[in-house]
């Protein structure tokens, strides 16, 4: 669910009227210094997927609601000409600062420098048509994963009132004890791992597949975390 439509005269996902707050000054170097593409993938699924799609091809489940096609991060030719510094500046300051769409919100006041750089690292993976090979033994807690990758849609307490869901006016089902009781642990696991197809009717289609970015243990950790909601 993130960021940018880094193409001329192209709109991105987002809402109107959010104030532009103070943004962090981009790094002085030409290229991004600290990168973690796996972390970037987690952020991408949380912020960018809804418009740019699971594959980064600009065909996300919300793309059809936009007046212009979201940027295709798999366009190697276009993005090869863009430096990491340019991408950082665009993501941190947003579209208005670059004479582009106001719907591309500035993320410099919401994401840290390292988070933006990690997102750029994953965008470069998409540019190169590569896959991320995740290491073992680096699992995050369920609370950490939820805070970094799920809260944007599901909200702090699972009420479905996250920033992205509010920006796009998405009706996200609240994660309540009653709702969770209707699903087995195996079903929850499959939903998180495989997502919900984009051609599914209703808002479920905005749930991406996390199997490539979360380990088996991390998915279990997330399930354990959301099962505490409402208790």
Task: Describe the protein in words.
41% of the residues are buried. This protein folds into two domains: 1-133, Cytochrome c-like domain (Cytochrome Bc1 Complex, Chain D, domain 2), CATH 1.10.760; 142-226, Cytochrome c-like domain (Cytochrome Bc1 Complex, Chain D, domain 2), CATH 1.10.760.10. 39% of the residues lie in helices and 0% in strands. By secondary structure, it is mainly alpha-helical. Mean pLDDT is 81; it is low at 1-32.
Compile the SSE list and pairings:
Layout: H1 37-47, H2 49-52, H3 76-80, H4 84-93, H5 113-127, H6 142-154, H7 163-167, H8 177-181, H9 185-194, H10 216-226
Helix pairs in contact: 1-5, 1-6, 6-10
Short overview:
Mean pLDDT is 81; it is low at 1-32. The chain has helices at 37-47, 49-52, 76-80, 84-93, 113-127, 142-154, 163-167, 177-181, 185-194, 216-226. The chain has two domains: 1-133, Orthogonal Bundle (Cytochrome Bc1 Complex, Chain D, domain 2), CATH 1.10.760; 142-226, Cytochrome c-like domain (Cytochrome Bc1 Complex, Chain D, domain 2).
Number of helices: 10
Main pleated sheet: none
Structural class: mainly alpha
Number of domains: 2
Fraction of residues in H or I helices = 25-40%
* Shape-level CATH architecture of the largest domain: Orthogonal Bundle
Overall mean confidence score, pLDDT: 81
- Into which percentage range does the β-strand content fall? under 5%
CATH class of the largest domain: Mainly Alpha
Radius of gyration: 17 Å
Show unreliable segments.
1-32
Q: Would you give the CATH topology of the largest domain?
A: Cytochrome Bc1 Complex, Chain D, domain 2
Shape: globular
The secondary-structure element order is HHHHHHHHHH
